[in-house]
Amino acid sequence: MIRKIVQIDEEACNGCGLCVPACAEGAIRIVGGKAVLSADNLCDGLGACLGDCPRDAIRIIEREADAFDEEAVDEHLRQTGRAPVSHPPHHAVSSHQHHAGGGCPGSRAMVLDAPPKADGTTPAPPQPSRLRQWPVQLHLVPPAAPYFQDADLVIAADCVPFAYADFHRDFLDGRALAIGCPKLDDNRFYQEKLAELFRVSTIRSITVLRMEVPCCGGIVMAARQALAASGKEIPFREVTIGIQGTVK
Fold first, then answer.
1. Could you read off the pLDDT of 83-101 as tens digits, one per residue?
2. Could you say which of 23, 41, 224, 247 has the lowest number of CB atoms within 10 Å?
3. Could you give the CA distance from residue 159 to residue 56 in angstroms, rounded to a whole number?
4. What would the mean pLDDT of 209-229 be, rounded to a whole number?
5. Strand runs (DSSP E) across 9-71, as ranges?
6. Rounded alpha-carbon distances, angstroms, from residue 206 to 94, 107, 152, 166
7. Residue spans of beta strands (DSSP E) within the chain
8. Domains with residue ranges and CATH for the chain
């Protein structure tokens, strides 16, 4: 069958191995100092590993390949000592989370339990926004913008403010912000944009907020590599947010 599947550029790969833990199915391993695809039927073709490759050696292509096999994935993970990926049967749904499909945890559909509502009859007053700048997208922010001078910078995966209810109060208040999606965007662009931002601005501290799904690690890597490329030493903190809205 013709389907989407990862392709690894052996020339570009330096064998760093960052893509190995990023693949929830264990489809990638290091052989002879290079990343290789263990078997076609272990790769779901969703590309969770792309954001974790610092050399852009992995891409998604379409070619003739065996169908993705969830049972083969679970057996492979057991043999390699990793926990199997959860693949609920189509007729079963959990009372806690409802999944649709397999593969990359960052792309798996879920319905999350709603939090309990307050018992009081008087609605809580609206909370003020802590946002003090515009724009916020990494593609759009000017690196030399005045709000980056002497600022504590938050770099957030764009799902974080939706998952973490108190994002404004706990992370944004008094800070500058840049957001992006390491799954859908070009992490090399992020790295270059952030490196320029760090060079031309007087950033006092960097906090990177990512989701717990593996593909979200790309924004952390881009920020770390950008900081190294800038030649500056700035305090750096990484915070992981769970899909249920908790700090991991």
1. 665 544 433 333 344 334 3
2. 247
3. 23
4. 90
5. 28-31, 34-37, 58-64
6. 38, 27, 6, 19
7. 2-8, 28-31, 34-37, 58-64, 97-100, 109-112, 152-157, 176-180, 205-211, 236-241
8. 2-88+97-111 (3.30.70.20), 146-241 (3.40.50)
